[in-house]
Design a protein that fits this description.
Elements lengths: L2 E2 L13 H12 L9 H21 L7 E4 L2 H12 L5 E5 L4 H11 L4 E5 L20 E7 L11 H11 L2 E5 L11 H4 L3 E5 L11 E5 L1 H4 L34 H17 L1 H19 L6 E3 L10 E5 L5 H12 L1 E2 L1 E3 L4 H6 L7 E5 L6 H18 L1
Helix pairs in contact: 1-8, 2-8, 3-4, 9-12, 10-12
């Protein structure tokens, strides 16, 4: 039996009902949205709108038309970053950001966009007292991950949001690792936009993501992609109204149907219950790891202010070989390397060797955790 512990990359298994919802669309619906005046098209349109409403409910947002579907969160972040920032603008990020933020910003830096990294300590915690010092007269936005995809440390979003409001700065949140497993209140955080992906803790399929955006920020962001929307077809310019402004081309209705089912499952389970279970699993794993001498826990050593993402460094061992060994001999699936976040690994002092990342989900069991801890200890004794 496979012990799957790579949920920070993509969740598995998916929520019950996801496969059935996708199959239902393929075999019984089939129509696109905004492109047909027949019953199957209307049915698909209803599911798409319902999914926007579910996302509004999940994140405490009240404009379903401002919930935009994209291919993934990288696509979402590129729209927000490249559609907002121009030559002469300045943006603040954390030093724990994923390449979905770092690469677009480094690309824009060649065109005159500046960015500053707010430092984090070697546990991945934001040095908040340094944050306000980075603000310049041309600071236009703050872009920050909700939680590290490397070590699971959660960022102080409320405090950062208060600083953004004080200085009139747009506030963009990357919720790749937290949407679906943590309570996120868009209004309470004072967010301008929040980007999400469907295939991680939202327990949906790959290929569907999106973002929520306030009208104030929407008025400043230009579309990254333009084309057919099924609306205003008599015009050869992009519609300005939502969600069509950002949703050119045929949407991924398979993904939307799957996400619709996974959101309903999450509401049925309850975000608080999902969070509590994941933290129980994480606490048991960390306690077990601390008893093994040859392993270094990276990041926070307890479950306060973290997600169910745990990185380990096997010191003098090759972390890639450890990852391979756990899979080959114990059928445990993890991910080694730099996790598309070299900046974070530099903060954590694990660059360039990387770590072995274990990430749990709502479907991981205590038996899985105990087996993983035993397997790590046994593999170090038998294969290294």
């Amino acid at each position: 039996m496979e012990i799957y512990m790579d949920n920070a990359a993509t969740s598995f298994p998916k929520a019950p009902g996801v496969a059935e919802a996708i199959n239902n669309y393929i075999t019984k619906v089939g129509g696109s949205i905004n492109r047909g005046a027949y019953s199957k098209a209307f049915e698909a349109e209803n599911i798409a709108f319902e999914t926007r409403e579910l996302l509004c409910e999940l994140f405490n947002f009240d404009k379903p038309e401002n919930v935009i579907f994209t291919a993934n969160i990288t696509h979402s972040l590129n729209i927000l970053i490249k559609g907002l920032l121009k030559k002469g603008d300045h943006v603040i990020i954390s030093s724990m950001e994923h390449n979905a933020v770092m690469r677009p910003l480094n690309s824009l830096a060649k065109e005159g966009v500046e960015f500053s990294k707010c430092p984090c300590n070697n546990y991945g915690q934001l040095v908040l007292e340094s944050f306000e010092e980075l603000i310049k007269p041309n600071t236009k936005a703050v872009i920050i991950t909700h939680a590290s995809n490397v070590c699971g440390t959660i960022m102080p979003l409320k405090e950062v949001g208060a600083i953004c409001r004080k200085h009139g700065i747009y506030y963009i949140i990357d919720a790749a690792q937290t949407a679906g497993c943590m309570d996120i209140n868009f209004k309470e955080l004072g967010a301008s936009a929040l980007a999400f992906t469907g295939h991680k803790s939202l327990l949906g399929p790959q290929g569907i993501g999106g973002f929520l955006i306030t009208e104030e920020l929407n008025n400043k962001v230009v579309p990254l992609i333009e084309g057919g929307t099924g609306s205003l077809s008599e015009l050869e310019i992009q519609p300005s109204y939502m969600p069509d402004k950002f949703e050119s081309g045929t949407p991924n209705l398979l993904g939307i149907y799957g996400l619709n089912a996974s959101l309903k499952y999450i509401f049925k389970q309850g975000i608080i219950n999902i969070r509590e279970k994941e933290m129980e699993l994480t606490e048991a794993f960390i306690k077990g790891i601390k008893k093994i001498d040859k392993v270094q826990l990276i990041g926070l050593g307890d479950t306060e202010n973290r997600t169910a993402v745990v990185s380990l460094d096997f010191n003098d061992k090759d972390n890639g070989v450890v990852c391979h060994t756990l899979n080959k001999y114990y059928n445990i699936s993890t991910r080694s390397g730099l996790h598309c976040a070299p900046s974070a690994h530099k903060v954590l002092n694990t660059f360039p060797r990387g770590t072995v990342r274990f990430s749990f989900s709502h479907f991981t069991t205590m038996e899985n955790i105990a087996y993983a801890v035993r397997s790590i200890e046994e593999s170090l004794n038998n294969y290294f």
